[in-house]
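One thing: could you explain this record?
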Amino acid sequence: MRHSSQAPAAVVMVRPHHFTVNTETAADNSFQTISDHGEDLALRAYAEITAAAATLESHGVKVHLFEDEGTSTPDSVFPNNWFSTHAGGHVAIYPMKAESRRRERRSDIIEMLKTEYRVQDVIDYSGLEPDALFLEGTGAMVLDHIDRVAYAVRSDRTNPIALERFSTHFNFEPMAFEACDSKGMPIYHTNVLMCIGTDFAVIGTGMISDRRRREEVVGRLARFGRRIIDLSEEQIGRFAGNALELQGTEGRILALSSTALDALDAGQRAAIEESVRLVALDIPTIERAGGSVRCTLAGIHLTPRH
């Protein structure tokens, strides 16, 4: 099976030692369901990331696993929001809405990337935070590395000025749109609504508010022959859109949660499995913080040093 620019062969994951609820982000994240705190929650989250990393490695994905032993970064398990990597040796660091999330940025992760991979430049957008111009990485954007489109649901975490600036620097065409659930609650991050693979895209089209814009998004996703797999709002609520295509040693896989896999019907599974192997990771504790598998994986689109 051919390698794809859409599917990285390596990821960064962060294993939390003191996982807990982030009250600061609950207001605009309707996926967040944690109400309890405590040691048991932290132990379960630690075990879930440990097992998830081992599963990915068993499929040939290289996992750079970092430890978070701090107590002031409750969402550190979701590193995809504060940095991304790009072919040609480019790295972006993002402006985050919640102050607690700004503390997740780590120089040791950036230094590892420079040591292990060919990094040409690091563009740091965190200076936009005092002006409330937020763009929370590959949570705020779902990037099509093949067609060079940055899909983005408009929200407090996805500022159009920051999106335009990123798109100009990294050679993406921005495609922003409104999306909300049936109660009118805006989708807080684009990557819970959609996932783009090499040969397919899964997306909750019914949650895109404007019909014309919905047709434009679907048409653009299908431009290179991708199969569009439509998800219901209930499936989106069970994180079926929050997945990431990766390159394993025996072909491409789609990493998603057990919750998400259970939400897919037989036809949807079969359609996805025409091009990738479905690999379910069991992270129910972490999902209660409002993010799923894709959020825990920062894909590495860089060339390894030999």
